[in-house]
Design a protein that fits this description.
This protein is α/β, with parallel strands linked by helices and 202 residues long. The protein has four helices and six strands, in the order E-E-H-E-E-E-H-H-E-H. The C terminus is likely disordered.
Length: 202
Amino acid sequence: MEWCPFATRDDNDSQDAGAFVAGPPRGVLHTTEMPTVAGARKAFVINNSWPHFAVTFEGGIYKAYQYLSIAVAARTLEHRPNTVQTNKQSAIQIEIAGHAKDAPGFSKAYLDGIAALMRWIEENASVGRTTEVMFVSPGQETRLSDERWLAYKGWCGHQHVPHNSHEDPGAINIDYLLARSSTGFVGGSGAQNEDEGIPGGP
């Protein structure tokens, strides 16, 4: 399945970066550095920097939007000349409405929605439900080497991608995101889940 059934399809203006060139599949989390998806979408249009997905929790309501099929590459990562592939390295990308500095305080309901989308991506794009990196606050990031990036599988952040300069998504609670299942997810003003006792933000 290339289009997520619980994400609003919005591919009217989006342009992909072409076919993936290699794997293994990996997921890349971003923050938009602005509070709304509408504002982020304007930036996607101006910069032609389309992700596969954007998610938001505006007004206490979780929503997901899909701009590109997960069968093609997004455009959100920088790819400098004569460096390893980034977008085309089987990277499925989610832009999270919000700021990297605020990521540790994202609500559990917001994180539950993001986690549900991650589970769908894992099932449909073969991204591993794991991470090999630490998600840290802006200014503390450590990027993967070319070799580690080319072999990477699972979830990472923009802050980990080689030859990029962005620091998002900050210290988002990746342990919580990986621990949550999508069972019982209802979206809307919150999310329900059968998992219990998993530490998370407020």
